[in-house]
Design a protein that fits this description.
The chain has about 60 residues and is an alpha+beta fold. It has one domain: Beta-Lactamase (2-Layer Sandwich), CATH 3.30.450.40. The chain contains one helix and two strands, in the order ββα.
Length: about 60
């Protein structure tokens, strides 16, 4: 969870309008990293730990089924 991408050292913007983002790793059933879910927002501090847990659960469900 990055509340302000402009204050995050080394951040590489996918979209110049992005102000905050959340990034969730996606693992297969063996535990290998297979993808990264990257969600951006034009709002600052658009995401929190609740969002992170929800997106992590969605990613786990996708990989389980």
């Amino acid at each position: 969870v990055v509340p302000d991408v402009h204050a995050f050292p080394g951040h590489i913007a996918c979209d110049s309008r992005s102000n905050s983002e959340i990034v969730v790793p996606v693992f297969d059933q063996a535990g290998a990293l297979v993808a990264v879910l990257d969600v951006d927002s034009t709002a600052f501090a658009a995401f929190d730990d609740v969002d992170a847990r929800g997106l992590e659960a969605v990613c786990r469900a996708m990989m389980a089924g």
